[in-house]
Write a structure and sequence with these properties.
Blueprint lengths: L1 E3 L9 H20 L13 H4 L2 H15 L4 E5 L6 H10 L14 E5 L5 H11 L4 E6 L6 H18 L1 H6 L1 E5 L5 H9 L2 E4 L13 H9 L4 H14 L8 H14 L4 E6 L5 H15 L7 E6 L8 H6 L4 E8 L26 H18 L4 E6 L4 H21 L10 H11 L9 H5 L1
Parallel strand pairs: 2-3, 2-4, 4-5, 5-6, 7-8, 7-9, 9-10
Antiparallel strand pairs: 1-10
Helix pairs in contact: 1-11, 1-15, 3-9, 4-9, 4-12, 10-15, 11-15, 12-15
Length: about 450
């Protein structure tokens, strides 16, 4: 994996980058020494090198055992409890896996990430004739969205299979010793995996939170961790030419020059949900104290036919980080056509990827000319190892970048505001008598 900052040179001077290197390295050192803001949530920093092989083997064993008896695994969670797993699954899966009748591994679907009544009605209808199990992910067990989903689907599972079989088809990923879900799991004998106290949701994808659903889908979680471990060593604070520090430096320099929106660009549709995970990681980590780069995303070349005009000629407060995959997993060339009515015979025998890469380069040149700084992050292939690298890279860079902004990248106080208002409006016990005042 590598990063290219050459296409920011029109906007950021080399001496500005060098001037910020020492501070970026200092912030990186704080992460490793657990000395910065939010240092009680830095368990993710050493996770790739500290995670036990026994845990990985147990996750794989449990995943294989439960996969034998089911067609579908419903993963219940919200925020970091689902975005990371879904991002990895979308990136590694066949684009049309949901339409194939491949019974080798269960289909993974998600619940608890919304409060749509239609979604749950249709989900229950879908599951009626399916053999399924549930993975419920929540530290507390009381977060409204996943708690609603789990109450509904748990009852359906028990009604369908009976209490004893249902108990074996529920996996809980929760707090080690406390919380409503932990208590329920202990009372019912559910298989449990721990969410460490010092790992927050958006940094949890390389823990059982993300690893178990990925393992059930049949992907190699050991290679995912191997990639993250490799990036851990590459971005250690003792390493020179540190790509995590480099990314954090450039984006903060651009931010201070008025480039307040960052667009994560991909040219592979399998990475569209990876961008959703990235948006939570950076949005929830940096968006505090009236500060922070606004994270957005586009899928090219698709969105060049919708958002391309604004990016090229709109307000100049945005920059792009292009996420590029060097080699595709499959090969396809353009055939010749005798009539050549579409005028494409000049590309006869060229691969689709060759066309895509030239679209990528042409777009980059156009956007730079239009005043849009560009960074490029390239991974060799879209597989478990390089995805593990990419995940850890963005996590590490996010921690450094948050410290450069002088915010705590590991809390999310603003998220509690909507919850409090929702509880008042629902007249939850403990919030009585406040509804009329809130509505006024």
């Amino acid at each position: 994996m590598k990063i290219n900052i050459d296409f920011t040179s029109k906007f950021v001077k080399k001496e500005e980058v060098e001037k910020l290197r020492e501070k970026a390295n200092s912030e990186n050192t704080k992460l490793h020494n657990k000395q910065g803001k939010g240092n009680d949530f830095l368990g993710w920093v050493d996770l790739p090198v500290n995670i036990e092989q026994n845990l990985l083997e147990d996750i794989q064993k449990t995943a294989i055992e439960i996969a034998k008896d089911i067609d579908v695994m419903v993963v219940i969670g919200i925020g970091g409890s689902y975005l990371g797993a879904k991002a990895v699954l979308e990136a590694l899966s066949d684009n049309f896996a949901c339409l194939r009748n491949d019974k080798k591994f269960p289909k993974i679907i998600f619940a608890g990430q919304n409060l749509s009544q239609d979604y749950y009605y249709e989900l229950r209808e879908f599951l009626e004739d399916k053999k399924y199990a549930i993975t419920v992910i929540s530290k507390s067990g009381t977060t409204t969205e996943p708690a609603v989903a789990f109450r509904i689907l748990k009852k359906d599972l028990e009604d369908k299979y009976g209490l004893e079989i249902a108990r074996k088809r529920i996996i809980a990923i929760t707090d080690k010793s406390r919380g409503a879900l932990k208590k329920l799991a202990d009372n019912n004998g559910y298989k449990c995996y721990e969410i460490a106290d010092d790992i927050g949701g958006r940094y949890s994808v390389l823990s059982p939170v993300g690893l178990f659903p990925v393992a059930v889908a049949g992907f190699d979680i050991k290679k995912l961790i191997e990639g993250a471990k490799n990036m851990y060593h590459r971005t250690d604070a003792t390493k020179k030419n540190n790509i995590a520090e480099e990314y954090a430096i450039i984006r903060n320099l651009l931010y201070n020059k008025g480039f307040t929106t960052e667009i994560l660009v991909n040219y592979n549709p399998k990475l569209s949900f990876f961008a959703e995970w990235w948006k939570q990681l950076y949005g929830e980590s940096e968006g505090k104290e009236q500060k922070g780069i606004f994270p957005a995303s586009v899928n090219f070349t698709t969105d060049l036919h919708s958002m391309g005009q604004y990016i090229q000629d709109g307000k100049r407060n945005l920059f792009e980080t292009v996420l590029s995959v060097a080699e595709p997993n499959h090969w396809l060339t353009l055939p010749a056509n005798e009539d050549d009515l579409d005028g494409l015979n000049y590309l006869e025998g060229k691969s689709i990827e060759y066309i895509n890469k030239n679209a990528e380069l042409g777009t980059t040149i156009a956007h730079i000319s239009g005043g849009v700084p560009n960074l490029k992050i390239e991974i060799p292939k879209l597989d478990e190892f390089h995805l593990g690298e990419l995940i850890y890279f963005f996590e590490k860079a996010c921690g450094i970048s948050g410290y450069l902004l002088d915010v705590n990248p590991f809390d999310q106080p603003g998220v509690e505001d909507y919850k409090r208002n929702m509880f008042i409006l629902l007249e939850k016990p403990g919030f009585e008598g406040l509804k009329e005042k809130l509505l006024s």
